[in-house]
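Example record used in the benchmark description.
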Amino acid sequence: MPDYHTNALSDALRRLAGSPYLAMTIDRLADKAAAIASELQKTVLAEVPQFLESGNPDLLPDLARHGPQHIEEILRLLRGGKVGRLDFVREHARRRAEQRFPLEATLHAYRSGHKVFSRWLRGVSVPVATRPEEAQRDLAAVADFTMEYTDAISTIFATTYSSHTRLLADVAGDQRAELLSLLLEGRDESDIRAAHILREAGFLDRRLTYCVALARSVDPAEMLNAARARRLADAIEQLVVDSATRRLIGVRAHKVTLVFAEVRRESGWTAPRSSLGKRLSAAMAFVGNAAVIGVSNDVPSTSHIPAAYTEAAAALELTSATQRVVQISDVPLQRLLQHYAGEDFRRMLPRWAPAFHRADEQARGALSATILAYASADMNVLRAAQKLGVHPNTLYARFQRIFDISGLKVTSFDGLTALLIVSGANL
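Model output (structure tokens):
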């Protein structure tokens, strides 16, 4: 207990000890202990609804034991006992923290208890005082004592609760980090220790399907700030909190890493669910313009999660200002080939490629859009023009512009293939 609480409570006890009727007050209080405990329980349940709303079966029995503990401590102090550590309050705080019971609910219960203790102490003290000045002095001493006692237990409870909550969070974070590492390493039943941890977390159900997502801020430098990275992780978790998926979220290598798991189908008689990755991509699209996210395909077991992580990393690199959430299965094969070919591929592009990209940029992407629309329309000019919302003559004019730059005809298969590759390459 902080020194100032110890001193304040000790001073209040010294003032109360000056009453010639203290011994009689203690006897009456001890006789009424059961009635005080009963009233304390009823008052707290009436004024703090969280105790009855909670589904925790240990909560009410703990509360019933905690009230008499305070009565015993108050009697011990009134009998001349020294102000101690109030370890029973600390233990109560640790249990409430482990049960995730709201801090403010217990503090409210202590305030309710203050009113009960104050009323009972006044009731057993005042009748034994024979002179008005003695009664006034005793009432003031009782008020000081109950106030200082409530202040002390509230401070101890709040401090212990907060520190234990941080400890639990640190432990959970360590466990989450270890579990995430095991999954990303592809561990399964072959590793006994890993299998035990994964099974405890529910990640070894053979009916599960998995997918991985990676997210970062649009400005990668912001991920160096741990608090901002954590906020992004929390924001994404809120988007998927209502889904039935099991999820594991952590920040690794300056990226938010998410592993999702879901039962593939309820039984052999039910149809398999739609793609987990696609559904999560749709949900995470609402994270806003400040983040980009890459999502893998679904994989059938934990041993495939490393491959899913690689897919998510590739999808993340293929995000852009216009497509902030990319699911790897939605990426055209041509673009994937370009991505995995990397620098070696870009060095082998034809000499006219930079000029084409400059012209396309000046045309606000019209040249590459024309090539893609023409290919998507099976080389049909009328359908491509309809898709782009322009006159067919506009397409022919663009074809000529492309020919002037590259020397390739869009209307030929070989020319169209080369132009599709170059138009999709990031220089």
